[in-house]
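Researcher: Last one for today. Full complex below.
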Amino acid sequence: MDVAVAKGSEIGFEMLGMNSTREGNLRILNYSNGSHREKMLDDILRGMTKRQKSIPAKYFYDARGSQLFDQICMTPEYYPTKTELAILDQSAAEIMQFFFEEGGDLIELGSGSNQKIRKLLDGMPRPGRGRIRYVPVDISRTCLLKSARELLTDYEDLTVLGVLADFTQHLSVLPRGRKLLTFFGSTIGNLTEPEAVNFLRSVRAIMNRDDRFLLGMDMLKPIEIIEAAYNDRQGVTCDFNRNILAHIDRELGADFDPEDFEHLAFFNTGTECVEMHLKARRNITARIEDLGLSVEIKKGETIHTEISTKFSRKRAQRLFQGAGLSVSRWVTDPKGWFSLIELEANGMEKRNGGSRGF
Ligand code: AVJ
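Model: Here's the assembly. Have a good evening.
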């Protein structure tokens, strides 16, 4: 049975033109199917021809954008990463009990840097770590390789299966065995409510009865603290916001001048989301060569670049309920600024356990 599943999956990759590479304890499966550029063209065309112009937040993360985000996490104002790491320090051992008796996969959706997974692994006594397979899922091959290699240097008995894929689209390609899934950083807050429910449902769809899903969520708190986190005094968030235009310039042959835009970030009390925008300092005509499109932007007009939802417990619970998930553990910091929530799929019959994909 196991063999058949493995073979089927392998054949599947080849048929879809996907490949896998191996290097010691590290294996990378490539599911990025080259439609990345098409998707970007489509997203930017859509976003730039709406009344309220917008660019999806995922385009922040080119190499420079990822660097800038890491820098944001180190600014004194940006509390989420620090708070989540502190929660992980406190709760890793308890969470990792998942792997005490039985092994399984530790699947990290949108892996980025590996510091949060390190906290989890450190909560596990060394002898048990050999039973864990770490499965980072990310769209950047460079990030995936770098983070996997670093991790393997420090945790020698770990096995890593890197999956190069867009986790908003390709969850069904993930290994089907016993697993603890993670989605850190409150990245879920970047999704609209319907997108978030869809995403959670698709996670729910790949969960077995005993699997767990660990989700980071940034919570409501006094508005001054929230707004300061998105308007750091060093201006790193401003550079991060503007860099999305540099990314589009490079990728789609556009001629936006990031300096023509002001960084704007504020908390919308109606939606309980931080909104980030780029606000034009003058009238601008920008050319996006690869779309054959010229865009008019009036002085004072904004391009919407991100929402970052700040959750109430009620809103979070509503999302989980809508997705068929229920809370098995809820951990916060003393101030209740950030939550790490462990979820399970509800309404499931016990499956005849642990049949493993590849
Ligand atoms: C990575 C999505 C969690 O929304 O706080 C940081 C991105 N944007 N500063 C967030 C971000 C501006 C961040 N997430």
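The CA atoms of residues 114 and 150 lie 8 Å apart. The chain is about 35% helix and 25% strand.
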